[in-house]
Design brief:
The protein has 514 residues and is an alpha+beta fold. The protein folds into three domains: 240 residues, BirA Bifunctional Protein, domain 2; 90 residues; 102 residues, Rossmann fold. It has 18 helices and 23 strands. Strand 12 and strand 13 form a beta hairpin. It is globular. The chain binds glycyl-adenosine-5'-phosphate.
């Protein structure tokens, strides 16, 4: 745990030092849980968005994209259920005056039970070797099965209480489990209250007549209200999907853990419209497709797991998260939700407009069902960034800090250096950049010794460094150094583009999904 905390602190400091992320309005001491992306951060964020967009829209003939407005008619949020049900249960500790999400306190407690069970399982697996059967061990070892059963019971009781809005039982559970405030260490809790997460704003200049609006808390509703427009203008046939990326806003009660939980963030969502009754088939399909997208980036299969929801949102008949092993443990990265026909039916009711599809094969009209895939772009950024940041101990025992970003996502693909700042070497370096910049983001650096320049680019995540030296003047060759292997090769200038392309092209990475 101490190591995890250390790593997380390093991630946050590194993100600032290398131009990835800074606190918003930092000169005014910042705004809580709101962040700005700096020059490298914006490139990485754009690249993640593009990688998602290509995988979802470009690679699926039956998915198209839209870009709906952030401000929507206020009835949208009545129909979607957000006005009445987009709440988090909050609880305050009377001694520390700190506010928490009651469900998160309980979930963290349950996660610790899971970790205890996992520790026993890992020990046993080491002891028994190849003959170890995890499933049998889980059900027969009393300590492990005890931890797992207790975890299930706790989560299921919480889910039931939240569903019934029985907030006093949620508090009771916190008391029974002996959960203490991480700051004061006390069990002196207030009652649990519901808190609506939507940010309100006003449309119009006149205070009397201004209309109350909300900043959208999810991008999905922009897709639902456009369902018929897109279906008709795109002549889409079910099954088909609509994808969108964009900002969402939530007045999170506890916004901690850097960009994991923000008040202003970006989502990448896709709603897949299907025949009623086919939802379980498509739900499984999209769970698998989305996991293979994640795995294509090579952050390690062991860092992902599915988590099936016990407590379903008001619109869902099944839901799972893809969880990622963040520096603070496994947490939700993406949600895959079977949303039934809840949203379209509800918009039909509130708008009085039909939102149906005529299925020529069935010769009938119906309100389609929907499978949704929903991922936070910032959360994906944190997954990629934190996983990529490593300290390597080299043969000479020195430590190399390297940001091993998947090359397709790296903000800058190549740095070009003249060995020294004279003899025409800078001019050749600039010529190389002029040629490469038509295809890739590049940077020029002539400051400090070459070794220090390499280290700077390693820490910034640049996959290739190209050095122009005196031999270049004679035979038009340069050295190209690979960030991860540190291997250096002498190649001709004409080969540079191709070598970079092979490693950074989106197509070669997306092919790994197949
Ligand atoms: N349309 C469904 C929906 O919005 P959600 O589980 O509330 O579902 C989907 O959010 C994804 O959005 C999450 O898996 C997470 O990646 C991201 N997300 C949600 N709240 C966030 C926040 N406060 N900060 C950053 N990302 C967030």
């Amino acid at each position: 745990m101490a190591n995890q905390d250390e790593h997380f602190k390093k991630v946050i400091a590194h993100a600032k030092e290398y131009g990835y992320i800074v606190q918003s309005s930092e000169i005014y001491d910042g705004l809580s849980a709101v962040y700005d992306y700096s020059h490298n951060g914006v490139e990485l964020k754009n690249n993640i968005r593009e990688y998602w967009w290509k995988a979802m829209v470009q690679m699926n003939e039956n998915i198209v994209g839209i870009d709906a407005a952030i401000l929507m008619h206020p009835t949208t949020w009545k129909a979607s259920g957000h006005v009445d049900a987009f709440n988090d249960p909050l609880i305050d500790n009377k001694d520390s005056k700190k506010r928490y999400r009651a469900d998160v306190l309980i979930e963290d407690y349950a996660e610790k039970l899971l970790q205890k069970a996992q520790k026993e399982i890992d020990k046993a697996s080491e002891r028994f070797g190849a003959s170890f059967d995890e499933e049998i061990y889980k059900s027969t070892n009393p300590r492990v099965s005890g931890y797992l059963t207790e975890k299930e019971q706790i989560l299921s009781r919480m889910a039931k209480s939240l569903e019934k809005n029985d907030l006093s039982d949620v508090k009771e559970l916190i008391i029974e489990l002996g959960i203490t405030c991480p700051v004061s260490g006390s069990k002196n809790w207030t009652d649990v209250k519901q808190f609506n997460l939507m940010f309100g704003t006003k449309l119009g200049a006149d205070a009397e007549t201004a209309m109350d609006l909300y900043l959208r808390p999810e991008t999905a509703q922009g897709i639902f209200v456009n369902f018929l427009n897109v279906q008709k203008s795109g002549r889409m046939k079910i099954p088909f999907g609509i994808a969108q990326t964009g900002k969402a806003f939530r007045n999170e009660i506890v916004a901690r853990q850097f960009i994991f939980r923000m008040r202003e963030f970006e989502q990448m969502e896709m709603q897949f419209f299907i025949r009623p009754g086919e939802q379980m088939k498509w739900y499984e399909t999209w769970k698998n497709k989305r996991l293979s997208w994640h795995l294509s980036l090579g952050l390690g299969k062991e860092n992902y797991r599915f988590h099936k929801h016990e407590k379903l949102a008001h619109y869902a008949d099944a839901a799972s998260d893809i969880e990622f092993n963040f520096p603070f443990g496994f947490k939700e990265l993406e949600g895959i939700h079977s949303r039934t026909d809840f949203d379209l039916s509800s918009h039909e009711k509130f708008s009085g407009k039909k939102l149906q599809y005529f299925d020529p094969e069935l010769n009938e009209s119906y309100v389609p069902y929907v499978i949704e895939t929903s991922i936070g772009l910032d959360r994906m950024f944190l997954a990629v960034f934190s996983n990529s940041l490593v300290d390597e101990v080299l043969e000479d025992q020195s430590v190399r800090t390297v940001l091993k970003l998947p090359a397709v996502l790296a903000p800058v693909k190549a740095a070009v250096f003249p060995l020294i700042k004279k003899d025409g070497l800078p001019e050749i370096a600039h010529q190389i950049i002029n040629e490469l910049k038509l295809d890739f983001n590049t940077t020029y650096d002539d400051k400090d010794a070459i070794g220090r320049r390499y280290r700077r680019q390693d820490a910034a995540g640049t996959p290739f460094c190209i050095t122009v030296d005196h031999q270049t003047l004679e035979d038009q060759t340069v050295t190209i150094r690979h960030r991860d292997t540190m291997e250096q090769k002498r190649i001709s200038i004409s080969e540079i583009k191709n070598i970079i392309f092979q490693e950074v092209s989106t197509s070669s990475w997306l092919r790994k999904m197949e």
